[in-house]
Amino acid sequence: MLPTFLGIGVPRAGTTWLHELLTTHPEVYLPAQRKEIHFYNRYYDRGLRWYEGFFPATIENGHYRAIGEITPAYFYHPRCMERIAQTPSVSRVILMLRNPVERAYSYYGLKMRNTDYQGSFEDFLADQPGVLERGFYSRYFEDCFRYFDRSHVLVLITEQAVANVTGTKNTLAHFLDIAVENFPQDVGTKRVNQGYVTRSSASYARIVKAGRGLRKWDGLVDLAKNMGLKRFFGKGDSIPSMGLETRQRLGRMYADEIDQLEFLLQIDLACWKLANEVQLP
Fold first, then answer.
1. Distances (CA, A) of 9 to 13, 15, 140, 158, 175
2. Over the stretch 238-263, which tens digit does the pLDDT of each residue have?
3. What was the pLDDT predicted at 113?
């Protein structure tokens, strides 16, 4: 079997939370051995037969109404949407979008932990300007809507989704045609991928770097994550706070983008606007 739906984006927007939510539903199949398969952006040359190996055989498919996988990098890759559309089984895609200011800050925290980055958030933005560019989500929706009808694209706003788990379950159930009552009652209430730096950040960063050099062993890397590699190194300091001036500057930079998204997607992003309208003391 090949997937019927995909979670395609965006990184640092709660896709791990979404993955854990969906894996608890008995009518949904997500690969257990690997969360992010990266087929359409890294391994497309391996062919659909290789990709099929991550999903149940037809004979085992009886009780699954939705089969999918979540790789948030798909949204940004220039060829992924075309490739996904050429897979006849995939009829629906899911995106989680987070306030682009918070998404950039979260990515900074990830780099502090995974690469032992020592600079400030402002230094990080100067070093990696592409991080801010990826917050202009509307630029990437052109490809998405070229290949998928709007009704087949579910956009979840991270801040709203995690604040109203019951509503999110209902939305997912309707979109994927699964029974909402089969979600466990308490699932989705626990926060995942919280931002912090490990106590031995340099050692942790070396292991992460080594793992990236062993992409053919992605399954082993995922296994290490599932076994709690971060917990082994321990929880250290929190990510340094974002300066109010920086938040205000980024809020102004994304203001028109947020308006554009509201118009394009016909959704309310007041929660982003409120968070970005900080006043300096």
1. 8, 7, 11, 11, 17
2. 788 899 999 999 999 999 999 999 99
3. 87
Q: Model's pTM, two decimal places?
A: 0.84
Looking at 74-187, which runs of residues are DSSP E strands? 92-97, 153-157
Structure tokens at 246: 């920086």
Here the CATH number for the domain that contains residue 82 is 3.40.50.300
> Residues near 7 by Cβ (< 8 Å), separated by ≥ 6?
15, 18, 19, 68, 69, 70, 71, 72, 93, 94, 95, 96
What domain count does the chain have?
1
Given a cut of 90, is residue 235 above it in pLDDT? no
Nearest one of 94, 95, 103, 99 to 130, comparing CA atoms? 103
Query: Does residue 248 lie within any of the structural domains?
Result: yes
